[in-house]
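2 proteins. here.
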Amino acid sequence: MLKKNFQKILFFIFVIISLQVYDAQAQRFPKPEFESGHTQPVLEIPESRSDFMEYLDVFILFLALSLVSWLVIKKRSRKGVLWVSIFSILYFGFLREGCVCSVGAIQNVALALFNPNYKIPLTVIAFFVLPLIYALIFGRVFCAGVCPLGAIQDFFVLRPIQIPLWLQKLLGLIPYIYLGLAVLYATTGTDFIICRYDPFIGIFRMTAQFSMIVLGVVFLLTSVFVARPYCRFFCPYSVLLNLFSRVSKYHLTITPSKCVQCRLCENSCPFGAIEQPEQLKMNESRKQTVKRFVVLGTIIPLLVFVGGWTVSQFHETLAKVHPKVLLAQELVSLDTISQSDTITEIDSNYVESIEIEAFKTSGESYTELYADANEIIKQFYIGAWILGAYIGLVFALTLASLSTFRYRKNYEPNKGTCLSCARCMDYCPIEPET
């Protein structure tokens, strides 16, 4: 009898331990308990997957890129690209909830390059590198039907309008600025702003703030008239894809053979990525050519310096986004209020934030906090100079590109801005040679 009771006790202990292990697996650390009545927010980040499933995601990305490349370059099938787009929306979008994302991987790679303590997973590196490799060889096939952010916009392109070229050039500068800010905030350990302000993650997860879901809906509704507005005028990853695709060896071609210049391809492209033939160029004298190069040679370094100096003047404003700098400024403001002779009713009813309460219980001194904040501000000063110089260079090269001439005999896709969606080849009346 005693032996039987002892077995029951052991079984009961085993059940209790199993439940504890299960609870530990379900939640990696216990919920915090705050006397202020804090409640744990709803999880907005997908739970981590096993290594096998993460590598499976990379393998599926590889297969999708390979399939779209074959459909665009060899098969010349717009319908096939559409089916891959549907798969990408369902798998990389709703099933994987937009994570891991090649667009957001920019920040992980940037942080890993500047912070040796950050260990970046190999799968994240693969998601960042694979689309660039394919862009280098086949063009922007990732944008064609693999990226769920672009694919979901593509299905809303119903009545696209052509945007003037000068406006496209102007709006096309935004992704470069966005990329620079994202790298600056990632390398300083401030925030991953690409993920925070991704307009479609809220739609894929339906757990984001209401304002972000509204932003995603606005982008989709805008796509009805302005094709893929996020891809063309906001996506920071498109900057890298644009550069790599410009030198792609096997890129989408509109016609399978000779172009008859029917202009159907130009009218069918909602992205304004088809360039018209340029056969004649106004001859300029040698003196005018030298003068133009001298002017460009002067403007480019001048804009680089002006851009760096201008943005560096706002380095403290940029640094305020960093949580440690923001916390230091809040503590300084509280100290100033406490030393003031007049305290308003609002000040007397002030309740400390959770961040300040956590800092006071952490054991870190004010001196250490202020020293860390000053060091971060210094990093932002250097980073702001680099960011400004980079933006100035982008503006300068954009101006220089307006004065260049490239001979074109037929209608051709712009390798940098063409999204390899295969619409143009679907409208082309020329049949492949047998």
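next one coming up
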Amino acid sequence: MKNVIFLLLFIFSFELHAKYNIVADFSLNNGLRVVCIEKKELPIACFSVFYKCGSINETPSKSGIAHFLEHMAFCGDNGAFSDFLENIGAEDNAFTSFRMICFYEIVPIEHLETVFKYESRRMEFMDINKEKFISEKGAILEERSMSCDNVPQGQHFESIDAALFNRMSGGIHPVGWRHEIESTEPQDLIDFHDKWFAPNNAVVLIVGDINVAQIKSLTEKYFAKIKSKEIAKINDDAIKPKEIKKVELKSSKIGTEAVVNYTYFVPFSVKNNFRKSMALFLVSQMLNQPTSFAKKTLENSLNKANSISFDYDYGAYQYDIFRVSISCSSVDNLSECENLWEYLKRKILISGITKAELETVKRQRAMSLAYRDQDIRTISQHIWFDMASGCTLEQIQSMDDVIQSITLNECKEALNEVLEPQYIAISRILPKEHDRD
């Protein structure tokens, strides 16, 4: 009885908190959009500004520029800003993706005007200190080593992305190619900033204990003076590859194991079919459950495979992809694991997902919201990534209701559209000395 009461209370709580309390959504004459979400529990706010540019906006031979600029934007006067935030116990950080560069700060409300001042300066100016530039280049090269060069999985996915996408559509890791990072000059960063950092190419999101009148006043004071720019159009039409891409990576760092990865083209996206995209998201959650048909089948595979994972990261690239990765216990089992996937795929398409599993992942989603919506940074991150992926604010507001309303048949239809056709890429990580027919 106690469990039933708890569940009813939880569901009621979920329904109350499923939508954000958007108290303002306005734009300045220069095109800057400002979204305000009220959350009154603590006298703090998360201020973030994300620019609708990333590695997709880089020019040939200049990979990693967007990420490099993100690093350098913490130097100069903005370096002093980071020191100020540290002294008052606040937090700041940033990140770069295929479609976005984002900066954010979590501060006490009384320091919000200081954040407006520095973020408006970061939008308007780019100062490059030569010593800091050299130092940051070294840090970025080390970051590349840690995420790609010295990590077989990093090399693996970098290679398959390069094969699947051209360099202007997701084919290069945001950190950039090593030789192009090494050849980067300060002027490259300034040029990128001058071209893409503009109020009409940015969104300011503020979450916390905010006063809308104050926000509008500060926005006018610090951002209205910045001029808009002509923003070039990027062609990101989804075009399915005409032939299957094959990538094979050999590494001395994986022992005697092997990994096989299948990549499938997703013929829909949040832009052209939001509901079906959310259905496929639920499918990936179901298939990754420890009790799913795929996972249980692996347990009975006589130790041929160690694990299987499914990944649907909507909006991450020029077009959406669905990945299946199988880790084999030994390279000698690779062929059997590949045959296992063909068997699993057929079974999954027939009866591999169930209504009980769908209800489980929906409950898990509801539970995660109870935690997510208590943290202003997590709320902000959820909105950044979904907006950068192509979701409108209205879709983000309705996302959790849509997810809860999706049926098992919708999930099966989305999965069939993706898995019924042949995969568009197959890639393998093998031991260094392995020879395979």
